[in-house]
Amino acid sequence: MKSLNLQSMAKCATARVVRLWILGLAVAGALTTLPAATPAAAHGERSQQAFLRMRTLNWYDVKWSKTELNVNDEMELTGKVHVFSGWPQAVARPGESFLNVGEPGPVLIRKSAFVGEVPVPRTFSMDVGEDYEYKIVLKARRQGRYHVHVQINVKDGGPIVGPGQWITIKGDMKDFTNPVTLLEGSTIDLETYGITWTYIYHFFWMAAATAWILYWFMTKGIIVRYWQVKAGKGRELIGQDEKRIGAITLAAVLLAVLVFYAAANREFPRTLPMQAGLLTGISPINEPRSTVAVQFKGGSYTVPGRELRIRAKVTNNGKEPVRLGEFTAAGLRFLNPEVFTTRPDFPDYLLADRGLSVSDSNPIAPGETRDLEVIIQDARFDIERLSDLAYDTDSQFGGLLFFFTPSGERQRAEIGGPVIPKFQAGATL
Amino acid sequence: MSASTETGSPAGKTWKSKEEFLGCVILTDWILLVILFAVLLGSFHIHYMLLAGDWDFWIDFKDRRMWPTVTPIVAMCFAAAAQSFFWTRFRLPIGATTVVLALLIGEWINRYDNFWGWTFFPINLVFPSALVPMGFWLDIVLMISGSWLVTALLGGLGWGLLFYPINWPVLAQYHQATEIDGVLLTLADLIGFNYVRTGTPEYIRMVERGTLRTFGKDVVPVAAFFSGFISMLVYFLWWNMGKWFSTTKYIEIEEV
Fold first, then answer.
1. In a domain, B208, yes or no
2. Mutate which of A154, A222, A242, A248 to disrupt the B interface (most B C-beta within 10 Å)?
3. DSSP strands (E only) in chain B
């Protein structure tokens, strides 16, 4: 039966079949490698559950120093992040975190990153309930228009994506350079450093392997060897001559390994192991304690109206009257137009400049405690899929409220708690 | 290529001449070689990406302990199975070399087309581990000894021991020291930091984690010996795996 199989295979191996094979391989190769991939425009932030985005990291004061750059220009991505006190039980706490950038590949490279004053090329630790200031210096590398987010990856919690902004990069990536000065004093371009040698080294060994395979393949091929082994003549295929060739080849291979190894040590006598480790003890933002206290008293979300209503007891312990100006959650900003008379510079898709209103818009006097109903209503709540809160396993919202004094001072207060979904239009709290 | 009918080939009335028969054999050999190579490339590549994964993808994962431990062990699986197939069926001492070459070609296509071509990661961040001399070692130990037991013991140990020295000629340049904002880094660390990977935060690197601290800085030989030892065991298992599946009984045509 087996010989019949081989016989029929050999009969099929006509020149026509071979040509079809080659054509098929070429088409398959072209189909898998040639078509251009469409660029990624977003990073899945909307797909993350609403409660996770609202109750883990609250981003605020996010700024992109530029939105248009040329290749090799630098920009800063800065801002603050509040680690929510009611961090959800379903997500690991941010004991090991990494300040990252959400972008479609390294179209901008990260030249440096800081949390507070501490450089963070490594993993660092954050404490729940605290606020941290961050700065990322980015350098434009590839031309195009990209959505660039701040992001913090939390170990066992996943990436938590902050607000994103469209950044336009002009020029050509082939002009990009990434100069780095080594401790020994010389400067290299990290963009291309060592690549030519890597190709040479790898393709040298691949060529050697190809030669070895073809040598054995060309001496008696596959089928004849199979027949000989099958006929009990396998030992004749590998005699003393073949073993001698093998021994010589092995000696040459080992000698080459030794020479390459010694040459590397001679050329790079001072090398270090890779550096890793957790940075702990990073100080949170050193700001006076907020003079406004907020107590959550209940809330509801009207699904058809895209309206979040929050009842809260607000106490002003400061010396000036305050008014509620902003609610922020999951990177979205809902502004009270009575407080924000000009539109701040922020990505439009995240800025509801008339999205917040309060039941009593009079300023809260110093020492006064007042029950407020805060109404957050905007299509962005739904577009950014925060309305999915109603379908989460932990239907609690979270965010920050910002109060403003007449002198322009800002007081922030965390708020969060369970909300009851209302699925009928016109339903009230 | 030389071929003969000395073993009593099935050349009979089906072919018009001996030359035509030999031509068919040679052509079939080439087709088989291409198919085998492609199958090994695809299957080994998937296996290796799943098991070695990030250790092989990124320069800043190639540490002194986990990388030289894990990578040779998972690479040994296909090398042993391919040797079993090529040696027992054809007496061809090319099994390990063929699979590591196939893997490397597949990896280079992937790294160049996908990692560089589509997502712009520089090649010095994403080049694969070099394995070819280990393939030579395993194949030639098997050819000279003619014993899979000797190959498992001697070849397996050498497989693990050779891995780091083979890769060091490329790696050394990326272990030079630099400093960024007062933090000491190697170039490998810095490449990983500079070229943003949204889904690959620094904390998932496993750089020298574990309990080999007693050995001070000389952790590579310990890791390599351990890797070699486990590679021996993997060789036993996967040689037999290769043997079990080196058969045409699954595809034979049965008359019904």
1. yes
2. A222
3. 177-180, 183-186
Amino acid letter, residue A287? E
For each of the domains in chain A, give its residue range(s) and CATH number, in order of start: 45-184 (2.60.120.570), 292-422 (2.60.40.1580)
- Determine, yes or no, domain membership for B5: no
Q: Give the C-alpha distances (Å, rounded to integers) separating A291 from A281, A335, B200.
A: 26, 20, 40
> How far apart (Å, rounded) are the C-alpha atoms in residues A350 and B92?
64
Q: Residue B244, class by beta-carbon neighbours within 10 Å (0-12 exposed, 13-18 middle, 19+ buried)?
A: exposed
Tokens representing residue B193 in the block: 């930091």
Q: Which residues sit opposite A170 in a β-bridge?
A: A70
3-state secondary structure A8-51: HHHHHCCHHHHHHHHHHHHHHHHHHHCCCCCCCCCCCHHHCCHH
Q: Of A47, A57, A86, A91, nearest to A388 (Cα)? A: A47
ipTM for the assembly:
0.92
Q: In this structure, is residue B13 part of a structural domain?
A: no
Report d(CA B97, CA B141) in Å as an integer: 12
Distance of alpha carbon B256 from alpha carbon B254, whole angstroms: 6
B5-55 pLDDT per residue, tens: 444 445 455 778 888 888 899 999 999 999 999 999 999 999 999 999 999
**Closest to B199 in 3D by CA, of A149, A210, A354, A424:** A149
Task: Count how many domains chain B has.
Answer: 1
Report the distance separating Cα B190 and Cα A20, nearest Å. Answer: 48
Q: Show the tokens assigned to B36.
A: 């085998």
CB-CB under 8 Å, A274 with B136: no
Closest by CA to A198, choosing from B245, B125, B187, is: B125
Q: Is A221 close to B3, i.e. CB distance below 8 A? A: yes
In this predicted model, what pLDDT tens digit does every residue of A179-222 receive, in sequence order? 999 999 999 999 999 999 999 999 999 999 999 999 999 988 99
In terms of Cα–Cα distance, which of B165, B198, B201 is closest to B64? Answer: B165
Picking from A173, A275, A278, A279 by the largest number of B CB atoms within 10 A of its own CB, the best residue to mutate is A275
Cα–Cα distances in angstroms (integers) from residue B52 to residues B37, B73, B243, in the given order: 21, 9, 24
Q: What is the CATH number of the domain that holds B197?
A: 1.20.1450.10
Q: Which two tokens stand for residue A190?
A: 């990290």
Task: Please report, in angstroms and rounded to a whole number, the separation of the first and last CA atoms in chain A.
Answer: 80
- Which chain B residues touch A105 with a CB distance below 8 Å? 118-121, 196
* Domain extent for B85: 18-245
Q: What is the DSSP string of B32-101?
A: HHHHHHHHHHHHHHHHHHHHTTHHHH-GGG--SSHHHHHHHHHHHHHHHHHHHHHHHHH--TTHHHHHHH
Residues of A in contact with B9 (CB under 8 A): 227
